[in-house]
């Protein structure tokens, strides 16, 4: 009787020992294992963990199970990058450029306004500013009361001259980044747009129908008010905000051609939005914030409808 030999390389007849290979790259040998699932991983697949290394799948699963960081008022932490603030500034600058381009005719430039650079109106500001109801030089009638409701939004992105633009964008840069970091992108954008709309609605209500107004200052005043409300909610010192706000109010009432209703309207609506965003209860906070914002928008809509009926009735 002859004896059968064991497998090659194994004199005892047991299984041949093999080197572990990466579960994602079978051609790579490794002795490192994922601390979470214990699968072998090569250096390319290693992800540093608090203890040892993990594989890519375990890292992704861990990220899905961790709730994203939120601000004190329910916003996302991504607002710290100031993307919305930068985008709003870029949009305002772009509209200024388009406004200057729209005044490229020789008459507009020769009139002293340098195509809108020095503060004169341009075809674009004539198209997008808040205007109640007026008859134009060509005999046509236009304004918010004539159905041009878009003016209540477009006006907050248009400016009369570069100085007007620079002052507002400087204020937006200073206020916007901090507010966006506190509120998050979506809530900050809602604050800006609703406050700007509120100021434009106030200008529509209390300005002569044939007088046009424009500028981001309606939204900027809303940001001032919201900063004050939010700082109070957080228990922080507001002594540095009050003098700046008072100075801006003094300019509002003393400098000619400034829209007093627009500034005050933005201030009031910005304060209301600040209350909605800062004092919403923690339970179902997003629902309360959305509902409060909707109530403000409905109220503004009602005021626009009443004013329109007065001008067209």
Question: If you had to describe this structure to a student in words, what would you say it looks like?
Answer:
This protein is mostly helical and 313 residues long. It has 2 domains: 33 residues, no CATH class; 236 residues, Up-down Bundle (Rhomboid-like fold), CATH 1.20.1540.10. Helices cover 55% and strands 3% of the residues. It contains 11 helices and 4 strands. The strands form 2 sheets. The chain has a two-stranded antiparallel sheet. A two-stranded antiparallel sheet has the order 3-4. The chain is elongated and about 90 Å long. The N terminus is likely disordered.
Key attributes of the depicted protein:
313 residues; mainly alpha; Rhomboid-like fold; 2 domains; two-stranded antiparallel ribbon; 55% helix; 3% strand; disordered N terminus
C-alpha-based Rg, rounded = 31 Å
Number of helices: 11
Write down the secondary-structure element order: EEHHHHEEHHHHHHH
Alpha-carbon distance between the two ends: 119 Å
Task: Bin the helical content.
Answer: 40-55%
Record field, number of beta strands: 4
Largest sheet, in brief, is: 2 strands, antiparallel
Work out the count of structural domains.
2
**CA-based shape:** elongated
CATH superfamily of the largest domain: Rhomboid-like
- Stretches with pLDDT under 50, minimum 5 residues: 1-11, 106-113
- Category from helices, strands and their pairing: mainly alpha
What is the CATH T-level topology of the largest domain? Rhomboid-like fold
Strand share of the residues?
Answer: under 5%
Strand arrangement in the largest pleated sheet: 1-2
- CATH class category name of the largest domain: Mainly Alpha
Overall pLDDT metric: 86
